[in-house]
Every structure is written in C-alpha cells, then in structure tokens.
Amino acid sequence: MDSINQQQPEDNMQDLNGQEALAKIKELAESAKSCFFVSNIKTGVPASVRPMSAQKIDEEGNFWFLSANDSHKNDELAKDPFVHLLFQGSGYSDFLNLYGIATITEDKEKIKELWEPTLKVWFTEGIDDPRISVIKVEPTEGYYWDNKHGNAIAFVKRLAGAAIGKTIDDSVEGKLTV
C-alpha cells in the first residue's frame, strides 16, 4: 500500500472476484466516456493504441467490437492476441484497466447482433459489408479506481481534506478477478 492510501481514515482497497468483479467491469465500461484498445503488448514492438467502442459487454464479461478485417489492428491481433483495454468515465472516477485475450471471427450472426446503423460510417456497404469482422476480448485480469458515493460526495471530501490538511477522499480501488 502506498503512503497516500495509508493516510486514509477509511478503507479504500477492495478487490473484487467473480460476479462482483463482472458487475464492476460492466458498470465502469458502460459508463466510460472513452475506451482505448491497445495491441502489440507482448510482441516487443511499440504498443498500438487506438480509440474504440465496445458494441457489447456480455454476461461473462467479454467485450465485443466490430473491426475491418483488413485493419492493422486485426493484423496485429493475429500475431499477438494479448490486449489491454483502458476506460475512463470522468476526471475523478470510473477508471478501468483490463488485460485480455482477443479472438477474431467473421460470424454473420454476431455481426447482426452487434450492428448499429451508425457503423455504416466505417462499413459503407452496411451490415453485409464483407470487411466486417468481430473481435471478442475475454478479460484475464484487471484493476479499477472509482469512488464510493458518487462524484459530488467525493468532491466535498476532497475539499474538506484540503481545508484541514488530511487525506480524505471517497476513493476505492482494487484488483478484478473474473
């Protein structure tokens, strides 16, 4: 535990497992304003980072993305399926850091399930565009940072802590084991 966490008057470390971890992953990922998809994390070349939107997070905690089958990302995943997903919901909460293993398919039923009309921006031939592939990311481990009672309470606690010179915040963080 680092020195800042040791100064907390209340417990702010909470590891989550199983269904609790899945619920937290889903909550934070669905409320995130941004997601960064990182590939090439094990091959020894510089990591590739790109913004992406998960089309779905299923009940097992798997993330589903649509991607062009001729993209650099798909090529990278074919060589190195290990990925890193980073989510941020706000400036003070809702952070999620996940590692996982990606698989690529061209399952037409899954494409239909995940399809949204706005995706035609990238897949100009629509739902039947032959370039559409599906990326499934199965999380293997993760970590989260959040607050316990919402951003307003966390802000008040930070103000009070700053006024009296003590570490008082509403944060909570921990490992996620699926």
TrEMBL record:
SUPFAM superfamilies: FMN-binding split barrel (SSF50475). Transmembrane segments: none annotated. Pfam families: Pyrid_ox_like. Residues 21-169 form the General stress protein FMN-binding split barrel domain. Coiled coil: none annotated. It comes from the Bacteria. Signal peptide: none annotated. This is General stress protein 26.
